[in-house]
Amino acid sequence: MKSLKLTLMGLMLAAAPAMLAAQPAPGTTPALSPAPAAALPATPASSAAAGTAVVNSATPVQTPVVTPPAAPKAAPDISHYAPDPEVGHPLEDGFKIQPQVTEIGQDALWMHNVVLMPIITIISLFVLALLLWVVVRFRAKANPTPSRTAHNTTIEIIWTLAPVLLLLVIAVPSIKLLAKQYSPPKADLTVKVIGNQWYWTYQYPDNGDFELVSNMIAEDKRKPSDGPRLLAVDERMVVPAGAVVKLIVTSNDVIHSFAVPAFWTKMDAVPGRLNETWFKVPADKPGVYYGQCSELCGARHAFMPIAVEAVPPARFAAWVASKGGTMPGAAGAANPDATSAASPATAATGTSAAPSAPLAVGAPGAAVSDATVNATATAKPIAQGATQNTGPTEP
Ligand SMILES: [Cu+2]
C-alpha cells in the first residue's frame, strides 16, 4: 500500500514539468490580456522606460530613481520609485510580518505582537507544563491505587472563568480594530480593482475613468528599480500619499484576492460582487509597496503581482495627466477615454457622489462603480473561456 502511494507520488512529480511546459510561457501573457498598450496613450510608458534606462546606464540604481527628463521642461515628471530595500516586499530570510505602513496595519501589528502572541505563548507553555506534570506525577507506577476524584468545584470555576476573562481581554482591542477597518474615513480617491486570469486591471473613475492593465514583468526584462523578482509589474497602481484610497474590488473570471501585506489590506475579488476595502499611505511614506493575488486562481496564480506606488499629490496629478486622465478639480476637461460609455456619467458624478458613502456599496453614492462594473463585464468576457480550456489536467 505504502509503495503504491509512493509510486503514485513519483508519477505525479515526474509529470509536473510536462504540465508546466504545456502552459503558455510566462512572457506570453499579453496574448490573454486585451492589448493594454493600445488602450492607453502610448507616450507615458515609453517615455518613462526611456528615462529610466538613461539613469541606469549612467549611474547605479538609486533610491528612489528620479528620472532627469531628457525632454524640455514641459514633459511631466512621471518617473517611478525604486523599491525600498526593507519595506514593502518580503525580505530574504524574513519570517516576521512586513513592516506596516498604514495606521490600520500598525494597529493590527500591535494586536498581533502585544496581545495575541504573548497570550498564545503563555497558554501553550502553561498547558504543556500541566501535561508534563500530570504525566509524571500521576503515572501508574507512582499511583498503584488511582484517585477516584470526580469533582472539584473550585478548579471547575477557575477553568471556566479564566478563559472567559481572557476572551474578553482579547475581544476589546480586537473589536476596536475591526470597527476601525470597517468604518473608513471619507475617500479621497476611488480605484476599481479587477482581477483577471492572470493580471490586474485598475480603473480610476474619479479621474476620467481611465484603465490600466497591470502585468508581471518577465524576469529577463526586469530591472532592479522595477521591484523584486515575481513582484515587479509593468503598470503600477499609483495613488497619492496621504489620501484615503477606496478600493472597489471585483473579478472578471474566478475568485482572486487583492493583498498588499505592508498595508494590512486583503480583499477577495469575486465575480459579480463589489467588495470594498481601503488604505491610507501616510504623506511622509511615499514609495512602492508590493503584494500578490492571494486566492488560488489557476495556473498562473503566482504570477499576477500587485505594485502600489504612493506618490506626492502633485506627482500623482502629473501621472494621471500622463495616462490621459483628469483631476477632480479640473471639471469639464475633455475626457480622452472615448471608449467607455460609463465615462461621462462618472466624470459628472464621480467626484462628488462616490466618496460620500464609503461603506454601502449598493447605496446611491456607489452608482458610479456599478456603471463601471457593467461596462467592464461586457467588455471582455471572451478571455475567460479561452484561457480556462487550456488546462493541462483535462482528461
Ligand atoms: Cu488571482
| DSSP helical segment count | 9
- Under CATH at level 1, the class of the domain at 189-384 stands as Mainly Beta
Main sheet properties: 5 strands, mixed
Q: Secondary-structure element sequence? A: HHHHHEEEEEEEEEEHHHH
Helix-strand makeup class: alpha+beta
- C-alpha geometry: elongated
CATH-level-4 superfamily name of the domain at 189-384 = Cupredoxins -  blue copper proteins
CATH topology of the domain at 189-384: the name is: Immunoglobulin-like
Topology, number of strands: 10
CATH architectural arrangement of the domain at 189-384: Sandwich
Assembly type of the chains comes to single chain
Strand content: 15-25%
Low-confidence stretches: 13-62, 68-74, 331-395
Beginning-to-end CA distance, first to last residue: 25 Å
Kindly provide the radius of gyration, computed on alpha-carbon positions and rounded to a whole number of angstroms.
Answer: 26 Å
What share of the residues lie within helices? 25-40%
User: How do the strands line up in the largest sheet?
Assistant: 3-2-1-5-8
Query: Which ligands, by name, code or SMILES, are bound?
Result: copper (II) ion
Mean pLDDT, to the nearest integer, reads: 74
Give an account of the 3D structure:
Helix 4 (103-137) runs antiparallel to helix 5 (153-182). 37% of the residues lie in helices and 15% in strands. Residues 13-62, 68-74 and 331-395 have low confidence and may be disordered. The strands form 2 sheets. Strands 3-2-1-5-8 form a 5-stranded mixed beta sheet. A 5-stranded mixed beta sheet has the order 4-10-9-6-7. It has 395 residues and is of the alpha+beta class. The protein is elongated. It has 9 helices and 10 strands. Among the domains are: 103-139 and 154-182; 189-384, Immunoglobulin-like (Sandwich), CATH 2.60.40.420. The chain binds copper (II) ion. The site of copper (II) ion has 7 residues, from loops.
